[in-house]
Amino acid sequence: MKLASATSQGERADAVGLPQIKLGANARYVGETSSQRHQYRGGDYTVFDAMASYTAGPWRFALNLSNVSDKTFITACPYHCFYGEPRKAIASAVYHW
Fold first, then answer.
1. What is the spatial distance between Cα 58 and Cα 20, in angstroms, rounded to a whole number?
2. Among residues 44, 74, 51, which one has the least CA distance to residue 5?
3. What values do phi and psi take at 79, rounded to 5?
4. Is residue 19 assigned to a domain?
5. Which pLDDT tens digit goes with each residue over 32-55?
6. Is the residue at 2 inside a domain?
7. 79 is in which domain, residue-wise?
8. DSSP 17
């Protein structure tokens, strides 16, 4: 079973007899950042994301997690440094007509 990007549709778990389940994972690596005048520096970081969904008839239930480990990191330092988003979970239920 291949794992896909957490932001994509994922991969069906047909290999284990669960075609209605999709799982996905993603790793984002960003190298060191610095301000325009190199006064501020942000170190490199890796953030992990994950998704899971279940389809039952016309319904699709999904859970998307970004920054699974709730890592604190600096995303950019244009003039001042900014922290990246903390862990975020989004749940959804979709009915297909």
1. 11
2. 51
3. -130, -35
4. yes
5. 877 767 677 778 999 999 999 999
6. no
7. 11-95
8. T
